[in-house]
Amino acid sequence: MSTLIKCELIKLRHSLSIGMLFLLALLPIVINMARPLLIKQQYQLFDLYFPLYNQYALFFPLVVMMVATAVFYMEYSNGTYVDWITYGYSKQKLIISKLTVAGLVLLAMCLLNYFIMALGLLLMVHATIVEVLQMTASFWGYSLIVILLNLPFGALLINISRNAIITTVVGIVCMVINAILMAAPFGYYIPTIFAYRFGLLPISQSDFFSNANFAASVGSTVTIVVICCLVTLSIWQFSRKKPIEN
To answer: Which domain holds residue 198?
Structure first.
């Protein structure tokens, strides 16, 4: 497995699309960093973090799906799919190595985003250690859930369609739906909405659901079940023999 992961990392080393996605993921953070520079007033940490988080939460699920698309689509676009699946490894190991590498890329992306965000905010405003820890829990809590959800979802879509445009369009549609339903009182039934509200919990309990205990219990259960289903489906779908392999 380690050999496969190394091979996948080597493939991505010269990938322009991954580099572009790193820059794309930074957009909400960079744009929101400009706010205190343009509008001069006294800010608290969460005055700046909250709008930044909202835009990041809207945009990041799409970035996750695009990373998943980029990692898998290179085999289809370069015509190396058949060569890849004849490495001598099981297809389960092949897809797990791809998912692992995509996950590592996304974690690196989150680390970069967090570092720039935290550094920028702390240079602009005074914050206590507790506030920094709350912001950290908010950012990483949301980011990790979305990675676990949208990475296998993106992998499933790209391996079914073998079309990057279709996967991207689906990601954009999901982004719009998330934007519409972010404040929905039943959002704990929708994993990505639950992830958004869960990320708000460390910084503002009032922005979580009104029936907090029930919402946390149901939302966590639904999210875990959906993650398990998506991972299982993505591996099962990829492991099936496709017409291109005949």
So the answer is: 2-245
Is 202 within 8 Å of 216 (Cβ atoms)? no
110: tokens are 């989150």
Q: Per the structure, how many domains does the chain have?
A: 1
Q: For the whole model, what pTM was predicted? A: 0.89
Q: Which of 179, 185, 203, 188 is nearest to 145 (CA)?
A: 188
- C-alpha distances (whole Å) from 203 to each of 80, 91, 113, 133, 160 are 47, 42, 19, 9, 39
* pLDDT tens-digit readout, 7-62: 777 777 777 788 888 888 888 888 877 766 666 667 788 878 888 898 899 889 99
Instruction: With H, G, I as helix, E, B as strand and everything else as coil, classify residue 89.
Output: coil
Buried residues in 137-173 as b, exposed as e (16+ CB within 10 A):
ebbbbbbbbbbbbbbbbbbbbbbebbebeebbebbee
Asked if 208 and 197 count as a contact pair (C-beta separation under 8 A), the reply is yes
- Locate 90 and state its tokens: 């099981």
